[in-house]
Design brief:
- The structure is a single chain.
- The protein is of the alpha/beta class and 233 residues long.
- The protein has two domains: 115 residues, Response regulator (Rossmann fold, 3-Layer(aba) Sandwich), CATH 3.40.50; 96 residues, Arc Repressor Mutant, subunit A.
- The chain has eight helices and twelve strands.
- The strands form three sheets. It has a five-stranded parallel β-sheet, sandwiched between helices. A four-stranded antiparallel β-sheet has the order 6-7-8-9, with helices on one face. Strands 10-12-11 form a three-stranded antiparallel β-sheet.
- A hairpin with a 4-residue loop joins strand 7 and strand 8.
- Helix 2 packs parallel to helix 3 and helix 6 crosses helix 8.
Length: 233
């Protein structure tokens, strides 16, 4: 059997750049998938399961920095930023958000290929190991599209409510402490503000139709944290 060629997702709104990258990467043994917009890139990262993402920051619908954040909510796929933004602050922000490398336009293809090979060598998980959707009974959470459904019915959540549910889902079946949730969602300065969490958990439970006295989705571990219940619990 022929070994599968690594698949690279190109997220860039410039057709000439996409064409150049497609031809160059294909000639060097890679398959390519393309996205013109940030949201499309996030969704194709989930559906196409690429081995690496080459990402422009200047996209028409959302900033590429936000695309990095969105992908990192559920995937460890290597991300190489390819952008005209050459400032140190932009590079530091991209790396802090989870990008693996940063290449400035204009660029040489030999350098980009070397960065791609290096990023692929450090890949933590093979494509397909990071699920883009979690199912817990009749609750489904689509991380890439930020969509929550119960028995096929859409549930509208605020950004904070979704972030709480996403964090619980990433640790499904395990307790996530109050401090960890506050630190990751509100920031280190809010680690002791447990009342924030109680209010948002209450709103989240109400929207999910969950009963705190007899929970189906979110279990409270008094004084410790919360846990997303798996169907067999």
């Amino acid at each position: 059997m022929t070994e599968r060629r690594p698949r690279i997702l190109i997220v860039d709104d410039e057709p000439q750049i996409r064409k150049f990258l497609r031809i160059s990467l294909t000639a060097h043994g890679y398959d390519t998938v393309e996205a013109l917009r940030g949201q499309d890139g996030v969704e194709k990262c989930a559906t196409e399961q690429p081995d690496l993402v080459v990402l422009d920051l200047g996209l028409p619908d959302m900033d590429g920095q936000d695309v990095i954040t969105r992908i990192r909510e559920w995937s460890e796929v290597p991300i190489v930023v390819l952008s005209v933004r050459a400032g140190e602050a932009e590079k530091v922000e991209a790396l802090d958000r989870g990008a693996n490398d940063f290449v400035t336009k204009p660029f040489g293809i030999a350098e980009l290929l070397a960065r791609v090979r290096a990023a692929l060598r450090t890949q933590k998980h093979p494509a397909g190991e990071q699920p883009s959707e979690l199912m817990a009974g009749d609750l489904s959470i689509d991380f890439a599209r930020r969509r929550v459904r119960i028995a096929g019915r859409d549930v509208k959540l605020s950004r904070k409510e979704f972030d709480i549910l996403r964090l619980l889902a990433q640790h499904a079946g395990r307790i996530v402490t109050h401090q960890q949730m506050l630190r990751e969602i509100w920031g280190p300065a809010q680690e002791q503000e447990v009342h924030y969490l109680r209010v948002y958990i209450g709103h989240l439970r109400h929207k999910l139709g969950d009963d705190s006295a007899d929970p189906k989705y979110i279990s409270n571990e008094p004084g410790v944290g919360y846990r997303l219940l798996l169907p067999d619990e």
